[in-house]
Write a structure and sequence with these properties.
The strands form seven sheets. A five-stranded mixed sheet has the order 11-12-13-14-15. Strands 16, 17, 19, 20 and 21 form a five-stranded antiparallel sheet that branches. It has a four-stranded mixed sheet with strand order 2-1-10-9. The protein has 16 helices and 26 strands. The protein is globular and about 65 Å long.
Length: about 575
């Protein structure tokens, strides 16, 4: 068996009666049972002939999802985690792009967005010995946003994940006594931080219910009631969680990652007994490559820390030459944990994974070109300085403008499109060229049907002509500094929100309730929308989804939702 799958049996032998996965109110499985169940899922995959090739995991987070993931690994299948809440059109493209052979579902029924894809029931079967899975075998595919408009499947091997499983828990100081929150969407590689840290230490993985997966009262209750000791999330998720660290006495470690960290918004989270760590690592480098294990609340900028054991950082100038310590350059990552490339994307793989010279040894090494500018400090830590390209990074999610623009161009009335990051509001802004007077709200509805909620632009401008450079290309530099027009049509009546909804609106947008009838025009973003809806649905017993709100992100829609619930 591979070093990765051996972790399952080794941990089960060492701690058979300890709780491995706790799904509160549903199920609680020991390591011995998890070992048996994952063995059975692997047997089911072998019996049905789908133990090779990409296998989509269409199972809700919980004991069943963890079992499906580990069972796929033990069978030698390639696990493809994804977020079932993403638009069906995007999920269908994902399945086609990775050439999935089958999908694992709770009951063996094919999902509606891929009705022709064979389905395997998540239930376990009995069998004898499982096949030997080599370390070189592919364990997972995680999709990142693609510059051509199609998500890119990143190939992570058993060896790469086993390396990270050995390194991450030690660097973070995790032990078998920890209760690690499973909060991350399966679509993002940080979910493997949660799973692998529990797997490598014998700690308990505690899966959060759907309501607790976004900032809000339900998340705070989950952390408190389940005595969570460690979790990972983005800085903006932590900042939007309405509770100081003093309300969570069991919590001792928060690992932040996915976006640049600024300490000021975290406020009361800096408290005695709670370590806040800063992690850095693109999916192509295997989840996590750097860690600053205990950040200073007064640091500016906050370092991304030092490389994990086995990670070789190489900082190069535009000509590919190493830069001295203290000078800025583009970060290339070599060493352990690197992805094998992008599935079925040889040209993009060749452009991202290069052969460079390691200045420390003079040897040629394979390295991932991150596109991130960094600086190595005198104490050996690194700081993040920004991007070398147009890639957008918002709320812990990487977006290629090309994917957003491609979906906008799918609309028959859009002639050209340009997605940029508004640095002041930390929002994605889309500028669309259309000759028909297309309304921004109509374009947002179209995008909400094809993009993950976090990728739907907060600000949309439609105009007859976009600015061009002398060569005829869209002038991104000009658009990046140009404030988009409000999405709200002239003369739109602004609703008056009752308390506490008015306060929640202000918390999410930073403006009075409402300064504009449109949530995004008022300063809101995707994370703020999720937090607002979590509070709304709990307080008023409503069920407004992020997709429904994206289609009509107005205070009037919120009021209609409340009235319908009464």
């Amino acid at each position: 068996m591979s070093a990765l799958t051996r972790l399952i049996t080794t941990t089960a032998e060492a701690r058979p009666d300890a709780v491995a996965v706790d799904n509160p109110g549903v199920a609680s499985w020991t390591w011995a049972r998890l070992d048996a169940e994952t063995h059975g899922v692997a047997a089911a995959l072998l019996d049905t002939g789908f133990a090779e090739g990409p296998l989509l995991l269409a199972v809700a987070p919980g004991t069943g999802w963890v079992t499906a993931l580990l069972g796929a690994w033990r069978a030698g299948a390639v696990a493809v985690p994804f977020d079932a809440g993403h638009p069906p059109a995007r999920l269908a493209r994902l399945a086609a792009g990775c050439r999935a052979r089958a999908v694992i579902t709770p009951d063996g029924t094919s999902p509606h967005w891929a009705p022709a894809l064979p389905a395997v029931a998540a239930g376990a079967r009995s069998c004898g010995d499982l096949p030997r899975v080599p370390d070189e075998a592919t364990a997972c595919l995680f999709h990142t946003s693609g510059s051509t408009g199609t998500p890119k499947p990143v190939v992570l091997s058993h060896r790469a994940l086993a390396e990270r499983a050995r390194e991450m828990p030690t660097a973070a100081g995790l032990t078998q006594s920890d209760r690690i929150a499973q909060l991350t969407s399966p679509a993002f590689d940080a979910v493997l931080w949660e799973v692998l840290c529990a797997l490598a230490t014998g700690a308990t993985l505690v899966t959060a219910p759907a309501a607790a997966r976004t900032p809000g009262p339900a998340l705070v209750r989950f952390l408190a009631e389940q005595r969570i000791t460690a979790l990972t999330c983005t800085p903006s998720q932590l900042a939007a969680t309405p509770a100081p660290a003093s309300a969570l006495p069991d919590l001792r470690l928060v690992v932040l990652g996915g976006e640049a960290l600024h300490v000021r918004p975290l406020g009361a989270w800096f408290a005695p007994g709670l370590r806040i760590a800063n992690a850095y690592g693109p999916t192509e480098a295997g989840i996590e490559a750097f860690l600053a294990p205990d950040i200073d609340p007064h640091a500016d900028p906050v370092p991304i820390g030092r490389p994990l054991p086995g990670v070789v950082p190489i900082v190069l100038d535009p000509e590919g030459q190493p830069v001295p310590d203290g000078e800025a350059g583009e970060l290339h990552l070599a060493g352990t944990g690197l992805a094998d490339g992008y599935l079925h994307r040889p040209e993009e793989s060749a452009a991202a994974f290069l052969t460079v010279t390691d200045p420390a040894t003079g040897r040629a090494v394979r390295a991932y070109r991150t596109g991130d500018r960094v600086r190595r400090l005198a104490d050996g830590q690194y700081t993040f300085l920004g991007r070398t390209d147009h890639q957008l990074n918002l709320r812990g999610v990487r977006f290629e403008p090309g994917e957003i623009e491609a979906r906008a161009l799918d609309h028959p009335e859009v002639l050209a499109a340009c997605a940029v990051l508004d640095p002041d509001r930390q929002q994605i802004a889309l500028h669309a060229e259309t000759a028909t007077g297309l309304a921004p709200a109509a374009l947002r509805c179209h995008l909400a049907e094809h993009l993950p909620p976090a990728a739907v632009p907060a600000r949309i401008t439609c105009r007859p002509r976009l600015p061009r450079t002398a060569s005829g290309k869209i002038d991104r530099r000009t658009l990046a500094t140009e404030p988009p027009e409000s999405d709200s049509p002239p003369g739109t009546a602004h609703a008056v929100l009752p308390e506490p909804l008015a306060t929640w609106w202000h918390d999410a947008t930073g403006t009075p309730a409402p300064d504009s009838g449109d949530f995004y025009a008022a300063g809101g973003d995707s994370l703020g929308a999720l937090a607002l809806l979590a509070r709304l649905n709990e307080h008023y017993d409503t069920d407004l989804t992020i997709a429904q709100f994206a289609a009509d992100p107005t205070a009037t829609n919120l009021l209609r939702t409340i009235r319908r619930s009464r």
